[in-house]
Every structure is written in C-alpha cells, then in structure tokens.
Fold this protein.
Amino acid sequence: MNLDFSQMVPYIPFILEGIWVTLKFVIVAIILGSILGTILALFKIGSIKPLRWFADAYTSIFRGTPLILQLMIIYYSIPQLTGYDISPFLSAILAFGLNSSAYISEIIRAGIQAVDKGQMEAAQALGIPYRAMMKDIILPQALKNILPALMNEFITLTKESAIVSTIGYLDLMRRAQVVGSDLFRNFEPLLFVGLIYWCLVMGLTVLGRMFERRLKQSD
Amino acid sequence: MIKVEHLYKKFGSNEVLTDISTDIKKGEVVSIIGPSGSGKSTFLRCLNMLEIPTSGKVIINGQDLTGPKKDVQKIRQGIGMVFQHFHLFPHLTVLENLTYAPMKVKGESKSLAEEKARALLLRVGLAEKEKAYPSSLSGGQKQRVAIARALAMEPELMLFDEPTSALDPEMVKEVLDVMKDLAKSGMTMAVVTHEMGFAREVADRVLFLDHGILVEEGKPLEFFASPKTERARDFLEKVL
C-alpha cells in the first residue's frame, strides 16, 4: 500500500478553488432548471394544447438522450452553426439547466396534481385569478410534497456536474485529473475530490431538511 | 336574484340534471334535498360555474353566467361557497385564510381585511383561533372558518354543499347554528343538505331532486307534512 497525500499538499488550494467553480454553475443550473421546470409543468397541466405538446416533446427529448451528449452538442455545435464561441461555463449551464428542467417539470407536475382538487375549487369559488391561485395556493402546497424528490434531483445534478470535465471546464473533477497527471498519482486527488463532493451533497441534504421542517410548521 | 332556466348537465352520456327551472329570491333560504346521486350537488355547483351546464341558463342579478364572454371570476366574487370537506388552505393560518381573497381579489388593505376577518371570527365563535393552522381545528371549527372565509368576500349569495355531512354528530349543531344565524340576518342561501331538521326549520322553500329531475318544490311545512309526489313520499319515509 503506497498512499502518499503529502505530495498533493501544494495542489490543495488549486483543488479547493474548484469547489466554487463547480458550485457556481451548479447553482445557476439549478435556478435555471427550476424556473424552466415550473413553466413546463404549468404548460403540462394547462389547457392550451400546443404548449402541452411542446412541454411533452421537450421532456421526452431531454430525458431520452444522454446528458453528456447534450453537453457535447451544445459545446461543439453552437460554434459550428453560429460562429459564436460558446464558453465551457455557458455550455455547462445550458446543458444542465435544460436537462434538469425536464426532470423538475415532471416532479412539479406530479406535485401539483397531488394537491386536493378542492383547493382549486375553493380558490375559484372565491374569485381568485388563476395566476394568484397557482402562486399562493397550489404551488406552496405542491412544494411541500415534492421537496424530497426535488432535493434528489439537485443532489444528482451536483454529482453529475463532474461530466463538464469532458469539455475542459476546470471544475473539481477536472482539477483532480490535472493534479493526477502532474503527480503521476491519480488515486489521492480523486479520493480528495470524492470527499469534497460528499461534503457538498451532505450540505445540500441538511439545507433540504431545514427547509422541509420550515414548511411543516402548518401541520 | 337567481333564475335557472331549462338547465341540463351531462357527464359524457350520463345525464345528471334534466330540465331544471326555478328561481331564488333575494333573502330567501332554499334547501335542496334528495337521495344521493340525485344531482343536488351538481345543481349547486352549476350556480357558480364550478360545473359548466351542458345547456340552459343561469342568470344571477340579470347576468347570464352561461352567456358568451361572461366574467365568471367577477360574478363568483359575489357568491360564497361552503364545501362538504371545508377545503381551507392548509398552509395559511385561520386569519390568512380569511384575508387572502379580500386582499388579493378586492385589493383591500391588510389592516382592513384583518379587522373584518376578526369580526367574522367573533361571529362564528372562533376569535381565539386566528393564529391557528387548519390542521389543528376540529371538523366543526374548520367548517365555521370556511363559512367565515366565504363571508369575508361579502357575498350576496351563499351556496352550501352538504356542509355538515363530513362532521361528527356532536359538531353538526355548531355549524347549523352559524347557518341559522346567517339566515336570520337576511342572507340569500342555497343549501344542499341531509339535515331535514334544518330544511324544515330554517328554509323558506324546499327543492326535492331525484335522478336529476326537480320533482317537487314547496314550503317546508307543506312539503314535509304532505308531499305531493310518490317519490318525495318514499324519500321522506326513508330519512325521517
């Protein structure tokens, strides 16, 4: 057994910088995915047929093809087709945001449909407009039910973010590979970033639990 | 105030309401009774367009709800509805349940809406519950809050869809008392109910529905003492 973490010490700041690099695009992708996902979910439960078809087709495409393929297509095809030199950061946000919105829209749709139909009728009977009803009455109740599923999606996104290393984005994973090839030792840096990913996910889990408790105050 | 003309409602090929015509005058309390599956609730829900009639007219204060391009939302603001299963907003406190619609829909200020909400809670005997969440209330309390929530919009007409059917027996009275009080204050009410006592005591008129047909209507005293139709007699024998 020949584990030697001491050689890695000079590289630690370089790897730690990767935390922010990873978090930065994960956070933006989660926000983008949540907003788009909510809109798609509203399309799916709405009564306007073309929007429903669009949302269904969208979900089918983004769930039906590999994420890494979507990432590559965005990163390589946009410069080829438009001449715009898209950065790895932007490609990553787009690929992850668009992809997770497909999953999130399904989670939210199920959450909305699980809210008692009587809630909608009560709101309608009071003359509350559709938008306000969705925003203030239906979605808050749906959110409470879907929070565990949503946290799951965010955790998956955080971990899967490692595949942006394939387009040369200097995230945690890529940094581990860089250090590995510099030292001719791969195991230690990989183990190290593995620990960091685990900590990130644990942090997210704790955050989710806290949020869940806050939403439970009405029970 | 309400005029219903030749109202039909079909779910697919199943005809739930057949050619119902009646009217309800201002200040009148009308009880709608009949066996389960007779279309009572569907009839009530057609009055505020929670169910869209297949054909026929519902005219409220001269406005045809079934006409083209009617602002149903606007008309609903003047019609309060109380449901069998309360449907309070579980993530809002009792006070917020009462103030949400007046603030959002009528644009009332928070202080005004809260002041009126507190007065209503006092009226239904739940002043001390304003900060509670619905899940901590008993069924009877929930229904009283639901009545107060509907009243907070200051409706001209109140619809009650079996308001006591989901309650434990000992809680029925507290809800009926609130409704009686409301009837005395001159509110126009349409009440789908299995409480024959309420229908007899409080209602000005009874509508008897069976298989989606308005079989008989009349003053409660006459209706309960000597129903004119065979079907009403059958029904009353079973429930009284």
